[in-house]
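Sat 14:20. Reprocessing the chain from the morning session after the first attempt stalled halfway. Input below, unchanged.
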Amino acid sequence: MLLPFLHEELTEAGCDEAGRGCLAGPVFAATVILPKDFENDLLNDSKQLSEKQRYALREIIEQKALAWAVGVVSHQEIDEINILNASFLAMHRAVDQLKVRPEHLLIDGNRFRKYRNLPHTTVIKGDGKFLSIAAASVLAKTYRDDYMNEIHVEYPGYGWSKNKGYPTKKHRSAIANYGITPYHRKTFNLLGDKQQLELVF
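Finished this time. Tokens:
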């Protein structure tokens, strides 16, 4: 069973990201402040949920959360500052947009760059331990999936509506056959080897 809070006396926001290991598209992060009495038996790490469950939970989270927000860092920015820094920046951008000021941040993972003067706690596999991080994981995942579904229409050969930009066999095969698109992260090892690729326009 997931825990509601680490510090119950504080206004606590859970943060998580989606798309860190992808070969294409932005990294998305979300942050969620849940009410003290929030309960949901289904809510869990988004990777443990079906697509239908994630979208149903997104509606509940957006309806019941005291505040929530989504931050995005583009694939161009990822290439400039690296994916770790981009993940931190996406979380910062999400917290920037919160309509309620948190007093503490709960971060999924083991590293984070401090946000202003707010205290934070990193939690390894936190999306399977705390409700607020799980809620953030659901929002980050579904909003990123929406984006990848949109750009799939522009470049249907890469299977983004299914693989969402992750390095599947089909995705890497498409890169080998067609080259890379303007949405690919050029600093990533796109084929799993050193082969150079041409941009597709």
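DSSP finds six helices and five strands in the chain.
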